Amino acid sequence: MTRIGVVVALPAECRTLTRRQPCRGEPFAIGDTLRVCLSGSGPDNAAKAAHRLAQVGCNGLVSWGCAGALRAHLASGDLILPAEIVCTDGTVWPAHPAWHRETVRYAEALPCKVYSGRMTASEGIVHGRDSKQMLAAATAADAVDMESGAVIRTAAVLGVPALVIRAVADEAGMAIPRSVLDALDPHGNTRLPKLFANLVRRPSDVPALLRLAVAFKAASATLRAMAPHLHAPGKF
């Protein structure tokens, strides 16, 4: 039986797949063919979650969630199905070709723009316009996240197929406000009391925060539209 394991970094991203409140690091089932593991943010957490999903019998891995755009043509809510991922050490890992083609065909029927090219991995949040431009120039990638490189590399080590499904949240010209960055805990979750306190000290961050919230809503809608594809996996 094909059993897909999905690595999701953040609870808000996980809610695009299920209303359940998962425990971090513990895989749980959504139907017969799908297992989800809430990893927390970052490559180390993602790799641990990928290994854990393999331990419970998953024979295909997906990195699921949001990404930051590195190119101006990408808008919030666009879907990124990269054919390859550039890891932080410069190595390039491909998505499983047949699975990737099948997923692109499914996505092209959705009411969003779909891009299939290259993503890159990052050890931390790439939050500024200049940083995004530099990363795009260095990697020739269209978008970035922190977990997909670890998931696809772990899949290669385990000998199982892998796929990356990401929706654009912050656009290339959008900077994540300092009030948000300072309110994140080590797992990437937002500490709301800290965020509110930061905004009191930096009220000029409020418009950028509102734009980021709208962007995340668009990305979440795209992921929810894509979610049924995970429940009907083809053969690798």
TrEMBL record:
Residues in coiled coil: none
Return the protein name: Phosphorylase
Q: Where is the signal peptide?
A: none
Gene3D superfamilies, per the entry: Nucleoside phosphorylase domain
Start and end residues of each Nucleoside phosphorylase domain: 3-174
